[in-house]
Amino acid sequence: MAPLSRRSFFKTGALAAALPLGVRAAPATAATAGAAAPLAADLSWLEGAPALMTGTTFGVPWPRGALRKDQAFTLGGATAIQSWPIAYWPDGSLKWTAHALPAQAGLADKLRLRPGAARSVANAPAGQAMTVSERPDVIVVNTGVIECIIPRQGGEIVSSIRRGGREIARSGKLVALADDQPDGSAGSTRQTSYDSRLARVTLEQRGPVRSVVKIEGTHRTVGGDSGGSRSWLPFTVRLYFYAGAESVRIMHTFVFDGDEQKDFLRGLGLRFDVPLADAPHERHVRFGGENGGLWAEGVRNLTGLRRDPGEAVRKAQLAGLPLPPIAERVDKSLHLVPAWGDYSLSQLSADSFRIRKRTKAGHGWIDAAWGRRAPGLGYIGGTAGGLAFGLRDFWQRHPTQLDIRNAHTDAAQVTLWMWSPDAPAMDMRFYHDGMGMDTHAEELQGLDITYEDYEKGFGTPVGVARSSELTLWALGATPPRERLVQMAAAVQTPPQLVPAPAHILATRVFGNMWSLPDRSTHARARIEDRLDAHFDFYRNEVEQRRWYGFWDYGDFRHAYDADRHEWRYDVGGYAWANSELSPDLWLWYAFLRTGRADIFRTGEAMVRHTSEVDTYHLGRFAGLGTRHNVQHWGCSAKQVRISTAVYRRMYYYLTADERIGDVMREVLDADRKLDLVDPVRKLANQPPKGPYPVLASFGTDWASLVANWMTEWERTGSTRYRDRILTGMRDIAAMPRGFFNAERMGYEPETGRLHNMIGTGAAASHLNAVFGAIEIFDELIALTGDKAFERAWLDYCELYNAPVEEQRRRLGKPHGGTDALYLGNSRMTAYAAWKRKDPALAQRAWKEFEGKRPYPPFVPARVAGSATLNPVTEVPYVSTNDTAQWGLAAIQNLALVGDALPST
């Protein structure tokens, strides 16, 4: 497809969707909406231009019909760039592109991406050209600075990392430790060691700036080549290489597939050997500390001795530089100065880490230092080179650990522990014994009192996953302290480029449901201020309540207990939120409109959590997610409304992250699991399914599936998933009452057909629109132009919150839906008002937003003394459900009917 000229592009109305009425920061007519989507994108760094740039990847959207598939891009100046498509509009034009920049310094705070001939990395400064060689036994990647050898089989994920002809690290493998019981209280505990075994190695991307190697395998009993060997804990590791980089980024994912009653993980890590050639007093150990601090010592320290080796010697050793001649009296006795071979930095809580060291195995540990929050960076090496290594979210994902062993020998061993072996074993058993709930009636009684949807055997962790980000630097010498501090900062907060909010908005890639912040009137400013206050409160709650830990970090709690001044962390379905009522979407729309780095990072942590921990990746429930519970996997409601791509796709498109891409692809056929876990299977007197394999709701089921299929359609142009969507759209539109017949439909997974089960009746649920349906349907209507589907959806939007008399007049009876989410569902009224250009509906939407009861002021209060363990700032009535739905309604109502909002 040839690119359209700007004149013909705007003349033909390629951006046919008009901007919502409430947009003020961007023009508000269809013609000027096109003009607001220039074929160039302003970019900025989330946290400012990075001091250390190891390479980065980012996504950029483009307006419909503007750019052909093979369009090249330039960032201008001397910056090399690699580009590739990650999503397409229905006409085949580019919707999203991904871009990679090499490792380089001196990039500006603001950059501009535009179509044009890309600068070739071959013309980059010396040492920045990347080469990749595929051989039958190995893949060799050379960034121009380091060379990495990746075997295709065996137990090593990396066999060697070299720099300047010298081997910096070798024998990289995954390691795991597992106990057969959680502790020794019931007798002796037997521990088994495992390491990695490769099943498949794929060169996933081969480019001049960025190359990616994907490694899949399992953990196998160490030394277990016999028939009794166990293979479990499947993993996926991606190695990311950037031209000119002296580092390798690693994304590690594992899936738990053991028996939670017998398998208690004691340690999970990545291990390398680091050859050492320098004398022990010219070998250096470094650990990053809090707020730019650094713990720095020599393997054999020359400071503090009874005899002075010389001031120049002491200063050089502290700086990690080659040593000048040592005073003779000290030099002749160096063999009597202890060499410390083993070091550990363990972060067992969010608020404390400890550094220990010992001379060698078989001798006692001594405490070296204590601190609060380590950034997760370590280093071992000397004047001849060394390895720096880092684990992201180190203190946030406790218990973690960095180990250096045998630093006094000719090869140190480094282990980055994603679960620390110094911590208690990972205990994933369900938290209660069922309390006598053996029938559905008893389970419903439990649901009534604790809001926990319990069912024996359903609270299993088998199939949940966790991904971790690691970075390795192969260095030619011990770096300056300031450089290591920069590395620690890059590990904790990798540099990220993002398009300007105005550019994203103008392209309409995420539909019409948001606008830029506007404080031009008192009423608008009041809503904007409250939006900010809600996010700031939750950002602070993560810290105040310590919502950290390996399995927990990234999630919010669901509901608050004002009597205890504590979230209901131990009360059934009121504990972890697990995406209930779309806090994920609230965060991402808040980021899209503001560009705030703190919102992005909070949303990023939530995506990493909910896509891995709250979603099953193998086993009985693969493709489904788990409703809110005390444990993330504890609820028996396994639903597509949790695993849906609608909560991941914004992050994916902004970052082109392959792991999130994997997860969204894993759920494509989740519809085949719906009959296994019918959400209403426990309720008596349900209507028969009839001839259909599945009974599905349009909101909590079908819309979630549509988000999965639509994302795949965007990413690949798949006609299979496009047609599945169109089939369902036609079926709903053809029902006599449209969406009011779709509350409970017969569904055929083989064909995608939907069937009316209630004839000419009408039914509705307050939950149907609050798991991404509103947002996805807006995009679908724009993508497909299906007018019949649009009319059916607008009728539903207009009538859901309508007075009962209006419902009866239009439907023949009230639809029966509750007003539990009356305020949140005001955005459906706003959508109908915008589409139908109905001022009365717009005014009704704002009245609904005000609620049937006054929404209390959001004023945090301080509670201290004996009422709480620690002083806390609380909002007693706070609820994540309400916060997310209020936030989405505020954002969307402002975008759609902002002009109808009273000015005061």
TrEMBL record:
Q: Report which superkingdom the organism of origin falls in.
A: Bacteria
Pfam families of this UniProt entry? PcRGLX_1st (PF19501), PcRGLX_2nd (PF21345), PcRGLX_3rd (PF21346)
Q: Which segments constitute the PcRGLX/YetA-like central beta-sandwich domain?
A: 131-488
The residues forming the signal peptide are: 1-30
* Keyword tags: Signal
Q: Which positions fall inside the PcRGLX/YetA-like N-terminal RIFT barrel domain?
A: 41-115
Q: Which residues form the PcRGLX/YetA-like C-terminal alpha/alpha toroid domain?
A: 494-901
Q: Which PANTHER family match?
A: CONCANAVALIN A-LIKE LECTIN/GLUCANASE, TAT PATHWAY SIGNAL SEQUENCE DOMAIN PROTEIN
Q: What is this protein called?
A: Tat pathway signal sequence domain protein
The protein's organism comes out as Massilia niabensis
**Upper lineage ranks?**
Bacteria, Pseudomonadati, Pseudomonadota, Betaproteobacteria, Burkholderiales
